[in-house]
Write a structure and sequence with these properties.
By secondary structure, the chain is of the alpha/beta class. 42% of the residues lie in helices and 14% in strands. It has 16 helices and 14 strands.
Length: 488
């Protein structure tokens, strides 16, 4: 393959710098590299859902600075051609009446509705957002996805790339492009963060979220690892418990070591539930639960099953990533807490120590949270009631129905650390090793933090005037939000 088309849609560090790193490697190898950029073409995108001009200017000026650093010839910087829009608002109103119908909406075989839902859910941080409240987000999203689909066909015909490179693959602006690659038989690569900040994932003909691909990768990575693999795997778990920043921010830095809920009664059978932020997985089909509709549905049914057995007490550690939100997930949990007396809700901002809670529990239940595999490592019976990259590891309690969930909970003995489910620390270490090693090392980008770094010793930045305009925009938005809240 000699001709590569990099579809650049997401300017924040390290993602745009990842594309720069890949591009420079290809150029050094003698390949033809083209960049397809937005230039305010989208009506909406993941980083600028309301299409504010100030944000567009920041994006464009940073991308221009990066392409200048790479010395990309002007004739290899491609823009989308204009294409007509086909979906009137009345047409969309008739067909999109719920999140389900939005997800099912397709255009020329491309699942653009799922891409639109995925972006809005992630931006609004609500897996069941009000489609009427965010109707214009939907309209702009459908229009953008359709434009990308049709314009990409023209670009492919003009450039005739041997391969394409894009960010992520699940969002409004990049999923239609990925689907066109599949339909046109063009090899594509998606990129995302790697296991540590000094690496990026680079995946051929798949997305970073593919459950089956990652499960296989965990095994093959372990089989091909060097003699230090156990030590590296252990570092992952020890690091998380100590609040180390790995590929993302630590969620436990504000927790108080050893602190348990004041009502914690060691005489009872205590089960801690670690949920996930449901907006992260809602539109990834691989993560559809085989047992429950979602985390909240599972928690409700489990509590109901033990509602009249006073020996059982459940503690729900609400995921710290949900801190400060009043979305559908949180509202449902509040109703659940008011209804059931056998569950104690530990809110995201509470200082309760997640690890002390885990170790004091007779068992934990997770729906995909990393705490599920961490419990396996620390020798606590771990019941997985959802889907997870680590779901094939030995030692996990893996029910296939709600009835089996109840049965497994009943069969775990209080303080029984000889349970077979606690004897597979080595399996957990496989996952820890993969987490710290997956990805490709950067050659030209040097990260200095989660979202900062330099490229060949230089910081790739937007112009100062564009940054100032964005700051003013943000200040105006905050002022408006404060004013509305004050006089509501």
């Amino acid at each position: 393959m000699n001709r590569y088309l990099i579809y650049s849609t997401y300017y924040p560090t390290p993602h745009f710098e990842t594309e720069m790193d890949i591009a420079k490697q290809l150029i050094q190898a003698g390949k033809e590299v083209f960049f397809l950029t937005c230039k305010s073409y989208f009506q909406t995108c993941f980083v600028n859902i309301n299409h504010h001009r100030a944000i567009c200017n920041v994006c464009q000026s940073k991308v221009e600075a990066g392409l200048k650093e790479l010395s990309i010839p002007k004739n290899r910087i491609i823009q989308f051609p204009n294409v007509p829009l086909y979906h009137t608002e009345s047409f969309l109103k008739e067909r999109i009446t719920s999140i389900e119908t939005l997800k099912a909406f397709k255009y020329k075989g491309s699942d653009i509705g799922l891409a639109v839902a995925s972006s809005i859910i992630s931006i609004r941080r609500d897996h069941r957002f009000d489609i009427n409240a965010y109707w214009q987000d939907i309209v702009r999203g459908i229009n953008t996805a359709q434009m990308v689909h049709d314009a990409t066909e023209i670009v492919f015909e003009q450039i005739k790339p041997d391969a394409a490179i894009l960010f992520n693959g699940r969002l409004i602006e990049n999923r239609p492009f990925m689907r066109l690659c599949e339909r046109s038989g063009i090899t594509f690569y998606t990129h995302e963060r790697g296991g540590l900040t000094n690496k990026y994932s680079f995946i051929e003909n798949s997305t970073p979220h593919s459950l089956e691909r990652i499960k296989k990768e965990i095994e093959t990575t372990w089989q091909n690892a060097d003699i230090n693999k156990e030590k590296i795997g252990v570092i992952f778990f020890e690091g998380r418990r100590n609040g180390a920043q790995q590929s993302w921010y630590s969620f436990i830095k504000n927790q108080e070591k050893g602190l348990l809920p004041s009502s914690f009664d060691k005489k009872k059978f205590n089960i801690s539930i670690f949920n996930s932020s449901m907006d992260e997985y809602e539109t990834i089909p691989d993560f559809d639960s085989k047992i429950y509709q979602n985390d909240n549905d599972g928690i409700e049914k489990i509590c109901a099953a033990f509602e009249h057995n006073l020996n059982y007490q459940f503690y729900l550690r609400v995921h710290p990533y949900l801190k400060g939100l009043r979305n559908t997930q949180i509202k449902e949990l509040e109703k659940l807490a008011a209804h059931f007396k056998n569950i104690t809700i530990i809110r995201p901002s509470e200082k309760i120590d997640s690890y002390a809670l885990m170790e004091a529990s007779d068992s934990i239940i997770s729906f995909g949270s990393t705490m599920g595999v961490e419990a396996l490592y620390w020798g606590v019976p771990s019941l997985l009631a959802g889907r997870a990259y680590y779901e094939d590891l030995k030692g996990l309690l893996k029910p296939s129905s709600h009835e089996q969930v109840v049965e497994m909970i009943e069969n775990i003995k209080i303080n029984d650390k000889t349970n077979p489910s606690t004897q597979h620390k080595d399996e957990a270490i496989k996952y820890g090793y993969w987490c710290l090693t997956f990805g490709t090392p950067y050659q030209y980008f040097t990260p200095t933090g989660i979202s900062s770094g330099t490229f060949s010793g230089k910081k790739i930045s937007p112009t100062r005037i564009s940054q100032l305009n964005r700051i003013l925009l943000k200040a105006g938005q905050l002022l408006t939000k404060y004013t509305v809240a004050k006089f509501k």
